[in-house]
Design goal:
Elements (H helix, E strand, L loop, with lengths): L3 E7 L5 E7 L9 E9 L2 H7 L16 E8 L11 E4 L9 H4 L25 E4 L2 H4 E3 L6 H4 L5 H11 L8 E5 L3 H10 L6 E6 L2 H10 L3 E4 L4 H8 L5 E6 L4 H10 E9 L11 H4 L5 E3 L8 H9 L9 E6 L3 H9 L1 H4 L3 E5 L2
Parallel strand pairs: 8-9, 8-11, 9-10, 11-12, 12-13, 14-15
Antiparallel strand pairs: 1-2, 3-4, 3-6, 3-15, 4-5, 5-7
Helix pairs in contact: 5-6
Protein name: Alcohol dehydrogenase
InterPro entries: ADH-like_C (IPR013149), ADH-like_N (IPR013154), ADH_Zn_CS (IPR002328), ER (IPR020843), GroES-like_sf (IPR011032), NAD(P)-bd_dom_sf (IPR036291)
Family: Belongs to the zinc-containing alcohol dehydrogenase family.
Length: 350
């Protein structure tokens, strides 16, 4: 008889359910099966539920951020053993294609990239199958808790690579982060590693602006006012050296292009489901660099090292905790951050 488990299943735009599904099994020698110990919800999951990611088919188990315990490994897995506590990366890597060989794992051509909760079943479940397990998991030091480690599955490397590193933050820069949700806060936290002169957070929610200050922003600006006026005043009319988009809406992206100085850089981090206007009639002569990207997670080992050494404090990111069976309540809290104050919600098995 087929073994069953509980999982969050996508049933089409706006629909999800916590229900019985078959437990995963090894389907490739490079697979590992983990018991999901701690898991979280991402803003990308909300984009999927909004219909912004049409590749996700009904029946798919959601989720791409988890910490788990290895319970089975395929014959081709050499670096993991049953009982290992591991971080499941949001990006899977075949390790041999052209992109993987250059560290661009998010663009993997060999069946990897962002597949968990997207093209294959994800980790918002009691058990999960992790493809390419040797290259797509990280064994965790004993002094790193499950709750803090799960922040490295996606939001920390995404913010760091696609925002801070793509934006080329340098000492003395004026950096603006538009959107102070979890990704924006992670961008603020990791931008601080490069000693910017000013770090400005822009958001509409007062709770998130306060959180941004806690994570290192020295200026907080209500998006409903005039962020451009605030940035101009701060920089003597020049504009920001680096602006990061951490929302994923046309308005947020277009706002970013108004805040950047000539010769500056706009790093788009947000997931976009709608078109945004690129005002080249204003930008063409300003030497502005605009970058986009899907996280590659090449920075995860470095971030994990900093976390283990106490150099990154991500604990304040977690605002709500639930038991795994309370997934629908967790989604409800995460979907209404203005009312609930939710940043990251974590769910754990007993």
């Amino acid at each position: 008889m087929e073994a069953l488990m509980k999982a969050v299943v996508y049933d089409g735009p706006g629909q999800k359910s916590w229900r019985d599904v078959p437990e995963p099994t090894i389907t490739d020698p490079r697979d590992a099966i983990v018991k999901v110990d701690t898991v979280t919800i991402c803003g990308t999951d909300l984009h999927i539920l909004a219909g912004d990611v049409p590749e996700v088919q009904p029946g798919r188990i959601l989720g791409h951020e988890a910490v788990g315990t290895v319970v089975d490994v395929g014959a081709g897995v050499t670096g993991l053993s049953r009982g290992d506590r591991v971080l499941a990366s949001c990006i899977s890597a075949c390790g041999v294609c052209r992109y993987c060989r250059s560290g661009r794992y998010g663009q993997c051509l060999g069946g990897g990239g962002w597949i968990l909760g997207h093209r294959v079943d994800g980790v918002q479940a009691q058990y999960a199958r992790l493809p390419f397990a040797d290259l797509s998991t990280y064994r965790l030091p004993a002094n790193v808790t499950d709750e803090t480690a799960v922040m490295l599955a996606d939001i920390l490397p995404t913010a760091y690579e696609v925002g801070v590193l793509n934006g080329q933050v340098r000492p003395g820069d004026t950096v603006v982060v538009v959107g102070a949700g979890p990704i924006g806060l992670a961008a603020i936290l990791t931008a601080r590693l490069y000693s910017p002169a000013h770090l400005v957070a822009v958001d509409r929610a007062e709770r998130r602006l306060q959180a941004a200050k806690q994570f290192g922003a020295d200026v907080a600006v209500d998006a409903g006012e005039d962020p451009r006026e605030a940035v101009q005043a701060l920089t003597g009319g020049l504009g920001a050296d680096v602006v990061m988009e951490a929302v994923g809406t046309p308005q947020a992206f277009e706002t970013c292009t108004t805040l950047v100085r000539p010769g500056g850089r706009v790093a788009n981090i947000g997931v976009h489901g709608k078109s945004a206007v690129l005002h080249l009639e204003e930008l063409w002569s300003r030497n502005v660099t605009i970058t986009t990207g899907l996280v590659d997670t090449y920075s995860t080992p470095d971030l994990l090292g900093m976390l283990a050494a106490g150099q990154l404090d991500v604990g304040h990111m977690i605002t709500h905790r639930f038991a795994l069976d309370d997934f629908m309540a967790a989604y409800d809290a995460f979907t209404r951050p203005a009312e609930t104050g939710a940043l990251k919600v974590v769910l754990s098995q007993d």
